[in-house]
Amino acid sequence: MSVKIAIIGGSGAYDPSMFKVEEEVTPGTPYGNPSAPILIGELAGVKVAFLERHGQGHVYPPHMVPYRANLWALKELGVEHIISTSTCGSLKEGLHPGELVVLDQFVDFTKDRKYSFYNQGATYHISVAEPFCKDLRELFYIEGERLGLPIHQEGTYACIEGPRFSTKAESKMFQDYADVVGMTLVPEAPLARELEMCYVNISMITDYDVWKEHVVSIQDIISVMQKNLGQVRSLLESTLPKILTGCRKCECAKALENAKA
Ligand SMILES: [Zn+2]
User: Which of 20, 26, 154, 250 has its CA 20 to 30 A from that of 95?
Assistant: First the structure.
């Protein structure tokens, strides 16, 4: 069964009422099994594959997620477009918990992950100067605006290794480089590019990380997450039918051209 669009959902993103599962598959890959069975069904009349990044029951912390198996398995199913959702902490006063960011850049502070599919045999140096699909970013932002969601058109994500949170000193340093901080974007985004798939990330801000003097309760974070998830769901329902499959005009589809050493 071929499916062109996939959603990789972060913490708490899977809601069984979101779509009716028609098929569940676990493709084996040269990199092991994906984090969870891939659920295939219909959302807003569009056939999509859904993969829980952290596995069923959140068994893979960010630094242990089998990113290569996840991307490879989706590619095997025929996926061309990946919509990734994740939570993040804000590094800026102007970015508030409860808001969404359509990321346009990242800075990689991870330390020990499997970053590439090309570790032997052929060497490829792909370009990630613009690490996300331009067309998908534009589509999601326009749709988010139209729906009246609190959505930011761009933002730079600092990806840390985790699973621990940052120290205050680290968080203050990241403020010089990025707008939000999280643990999962790298290597997921560059691996999608290596497989020439279009990739967009919608980041949901849940808190102010640790740089800001403030008291956060777990109840606050949960209520922000629930509000965020409702917003992301309406954004998905509205945007999915507008994604054109089978005729990509963006650069993502030719990422390997001229990248071979
Ligand atoms: Zn693209």
Answer: 250
The catalytically annotated residue of 104, 135, 179, 207 is 207
Looking from the CA of 123 toward its CB, the CA atoms found within 13 Å total: 1
- Structural domain that includes position 203: 5-254
Pick from 253, 148, 167, 147: which is nearest to 211 by CA?
167
| CATH, residue 157 | 3.40.50.1580
Residue closest to 136 by CA, chosen among 84, 100, 86 = 84
Domain assignment present for 260: no
112 part of the active site: no
19 CA distance to ligand 1 middle (Å): 25
Count of domains forming the chain:
1
Has 207 been annotated as catalytic? yes
Cα(197) to centroid(ligand 1), Å = 7
pLDDT at 15: 75
Q: Which of the residues 108, 135, 179, 209 is marked catalytic?
A: 209
Terminal Cα-to-Cα distance of the chain (whole angstroms):
35
- How close is the Cα of 207 to the center of ligand 1, in Å? 30
- CA atoms of 151 and 231, how far apart (whole Å): 10
Q: Please tell me the distance between residue 237's alpha carbon and the centre of ligand 1 in angstroms.
A: 20
The model's pTM is 0.95
**Span 21-75, pLDDT tens digits:** 999 999 999 999 999 999 999 999 999 999 999 999 889 999 999 999 999 999 9
